[in-house]
Write a structure and sequence with these properties.
CATH topology of the domain at 189-332: Heat Shock Protein 90
Oligomer: single chain
CATH superfamily of the domain at 189-332: Histidine kinase-like ATPase, C-terminal domain
Order of helices and strands: HHHHHEHEEHEEHEE
Distance between the termini: 37 Å
CATH architecture of the domain at 189-332: 2-Layer Sandwich
Largest sheet: 5 strands, mixed
Strand order of the largest sheet: 2-4-5-7-6
Number of helices: 8
CATH class of the domain at 189-332: Alpha Beta
Shape: elongated
Strand content: 5-15%
Number of strands: 7
């Protein structure tokens, strides 16, 4: 089966190669020769040879080179005084270019292999660590049922919270790896914006701090999972870096950008006393504000938000208004 697929791919590539050569031949006899004469007869073939060699391989480039020599030298009108020299220069130039292209293809193939190996390693480590964490979490849950000590219960709660933080970091690392590899593709569906916001709020430990204002009739056609990850990261970030018991405000309203109808979700929160934020860097990978260094995390949350928004063809901006930070997320109603 695999052999048959490879044979079909080889035939397809050969056809594309010959069609490209045929196009270059027509370009030469219909355009190049009438405009600049026959002295530059090799001109249209060189870029075609390089393109074919890069995308299809060294051997296809060599095939086009041989065909170019046959066609150009078989033309009785091509009789420049330095014919041998032109042939030699063209041959040397093509051979050097093909060698460089083959080196480039080898480097790209190695880079792809290393990238895939890294991705497999991350997936394997994440799976093993999460499996171990599940065992620790189960043990902590069992201990919480066996003790009535308030001190022990507090420590077990802290342990569970630490486990969830580690899980969250692992999930974000996996998502970042998938985005870098171009494996995150949207699967769109019609959904209610207010329900999506409600679901994201319910997943937060301090949901009571969040104030929501969004029309229940507002709907959007987008990927539910990716939208959920965007909202979770935004809300989690707002809760994490705002003063305790302060209010996080979420607003959803219709908006039009880039000539398209869409929905804007506004997320705002107060900054903790003494906190600083560089709004030009908040979406950078691994960026963490000075106060974030004392908290667990990988600096991927808002980078993931921006990456997810780009996948959904949306837009997100951050601005500071005094001691308040505001994120404006816009998504089109439909793709």
């Amino acid at each position: 089966m695999a052999s048959a697929i490879n044979d079909k791919a080889l035939i397809r590539d050969a056809i594309v190669c010959l069609l490209t050569f045929g196009g270059c031949y027509l370009l030469r006899i219909l355009v190049v020769d009438p405009l600049i004469g026959t002295d530059d007869a090799f001109f249209p073939y060189y870029p075609a040879i390089m393109t074919i060699a890069f995308f299809m391989g060294y051997w296809f480039g060599g095939l086009l080179t041989g065909l170019s020599f046959l066609v150009v030298n078989a033309n009785p009108l091509w009789i420049p005084p330095n014919k041998t020299f032109i042939n030699l220069v063209f041959l040397l130039l093509v051979l050097l270019s093909l060698w460089l292209i083959e080196r480039l293809r080898s480097l790209l193939a190695r880079e792809k292999y290393l990238r895939q190996s890294q991705s497999d390693l991350i997936s394997m480590l994440a799976h093993e660590i999460k499996t171990s964490l599940s065992g620790i979490q189960a043990a902590a849950s069992s201990l919480s049922l066996m003790t009535s000590s308030e001190l022990a219960e507090g420590r077990i709660r802290n342990q569970k919270r630490a486990i969830e933080e580690i899980r969250s970091i692992l999930d974000r690392c996996i998502e970042a790896d998938r985005i870098d590899a171009g494996c995150m593709l949207p699967e769109r569906a019609d959904l209610s914006v207010s329900i999506a916001l409600d679901e994201a709020i319910r997943q937060q430990e301090e949901a009571h701090r969040i104030k929501l204002d969004c029309p229940s009739r507002m709907r959007i056609n987008t990927d539910p999972f990716i939208l959920g990850r965007i909202l979770n990261n935004l809300i989690h970030n707002a809760l994490r870096y705002s003063p305790p018991e302060s209010t996080i405000t979420l607003q959803g309203f219709a908006d039009r950008r880039h000539g398209k109808r869409g929905v804007t979700i506004r997320c705002s929160n107060k900054l903790s006393s003494g906190s600083s934020l560089d709004s030009s860097k908040v979406f950078d990978k691994y960026y963490r504000g000075p106060e974030g260094m004392s908290l667990s995390g990988a600096g991927l949350g808002l980078w993931l938000v921006r990456s997810f928004v780009e996948i959904l063809s949306g837009d997100i901006r951050c601005r500071l208004a005094g001691s308040e930070v505001v994120f404006m997320l816009w998504l089109p109603l439909s793709p």
